[in-house]
Write a structure and sequence with these properties.
- The protein has 78 residues and is mainly α.
- It has one domain.
- It contains four helices and no strands.
């Protein structure tokens, strides 16, 4: 088992999903309030979950009308 498999096992036990963002735009998700709000709302839109103690996310102005259909999760056998 390599390091990536160990990390994957830990993430699966914690039920954590990762998002892959291309390097060219990854910084936007760290520093752009508009991008952060859009991603937070998209997550809420898909899963109807938001952190306890935080307000329910509101749909941002200029929220994208078209999103790619989410892919089914990849099932890894460990």
């Amino acid at each position: 088992m390599n390091g990536n498999e160990s990390l994957l096992r830990v993430l699966q036990k914690l039920n954590i999903d990762l998002v892959s963002i291309p390097n060219a735009i990854a910084g936007l998700s760290d520093f752009s309030d508009d991008v952060i709000k859009a991603l937070q709302y998209r997550s809420y839109e898909l899963y109807r979950w938001y952190p306890q103690g935080h307000p329910e996310p509101k749909k941002p102005v200029n929220y994208p009308a078209n999103w790619q259909t989410p892919q089914e999760p990849v099932k890894y056998q460990i």
